[in-house]
Q: What sequence folds into this?
């Protein structure tokens, strides 16, 4: 019996996360009566993945993340979501104007927008928002 070798590309492709928009689409189709097994085949995912998405239905539907966001985290507040949306608008404006934007500039602007939103939101402080101040780290930038 020959064992099939799985390349790094194949395994990365299968482990790729689904964005929130796709999860909402799966939930919507399930609500319309499509069976879990059919959804699993259509989206090339395991049935357990589909069941997990359906189990998290309320939290998925309650979010309005920036385009392409894949993970719902308890550390991500609505301030994070708003900051990323505003940052994307700012970035689009800069690109349309033909300005050069570096990683350092983007991170600096993200911290500034976050600080502004934090001040505008009544009853929040750095500690209440996420436990610690927003740092615009390399990990955040990579995911953004």
A:
């Amino acid at each position: 019996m020959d064992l099939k070798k799985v390349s790094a590309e194949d395994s990365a492709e299968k482990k790729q996360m689904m964005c929130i928009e796709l999860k909402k689409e799966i939930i919507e189709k399930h609500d319309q009566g499509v069976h879990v097994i059919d959804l699993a085949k259509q989206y090339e995912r395991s049935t357990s993945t589909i069941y997990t998405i359906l189990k998290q239905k309320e939290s998925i539907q309650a979010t309005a993340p920036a385009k392409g966001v894949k993970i719902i985290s308890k550390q991500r507040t609505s301030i994070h979501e708003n900051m990323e949306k505003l940052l994307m608008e700012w970035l689009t404006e800069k690109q349309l104007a033909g300005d050069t934007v570096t990683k350092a500039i983007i991170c600096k602007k993200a911290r500034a927008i976050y600080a502004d939103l934090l001040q505008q939101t009544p009853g929040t402080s750095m500690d209440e928002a996420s436990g610690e101040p927003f740092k615009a780290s390399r990990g955040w930038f990579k995911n953004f």
